[in-house]
Amino acid sequence: TIPKEPAVLRQHILDTTAAILACGIDPKKCFLFRQSLVHEHVELAWILGCLTNVPRLLRLPQWKMKQASQNNEGTVGLLTYPVLQAADILLYKSTHVPVGEDQVLHLELAQDIAQHFNKKYGEFFPVPKAILSEL
């Protein structure tokens, strides 16, 4: 949600890809792609954003913390980022999502959005469940 220099962003994409491959992810067994090239992510985020009310987003603790750190000048991108995360999850009809404790509320938002969408338009999205790692 913070603007980056294009060259830095390109390098981050390459570094992240290298790290994923170094972890042992086998591109012969899974799909690796640049999410930013899949227009359906932002298209679904727009649709889901039209079903999500602003007060719900304003209550998320991550919004409150980051907005405070930005001198109460948080951006729309920061506010709506959890809706984009929900679109990332729901686009692939994910049933289970590995999350850390700090992302549980965002997953709950995705669950609520899926349920709201399904109630309004018919069963379409599975309601994803959290997979919390034990450390």
Automatic annotation (TrEMBL):
Q: Which UniProt keywords apply?
A: Aminoacyl-tRNA synthetase, ATP-binding, Ligase, Nucleotide-binding, Protein biosynthesis
| A GO MF label | tryptophan-tRNA ligase activity
Family membership, please give it: Belongs to the class-I aminoacyl-tRNA synthetase family.
Could you tell me which Gene3D superfamilies the record lists for this protein?
HUPs
Record InterPro entries: aa-tRNA-synth_Ic, Rossmann-like_a/b/a_fold, Trp-tRNA-ligase, Trp-tRNA_synthetase
Pfam families annotated for this entry? tRNA-synt_1b
GO CC field: mitochondrial matrix
Q: Does the keyword section mention Ligase?
A: yes
The gene it comes from is Wars2
Q: Name one GO biological process term.
A: mitochondrial tryptophanyl-tRNA aminoacylation
> Carries keyword Nucleotide-binding?
yes
Organism (species): Turnix velox
What EC numbers are recorded for this enzyme?
A: 6.1.1.2
Name of this chain's protein: tryptophan--tRNA ligase
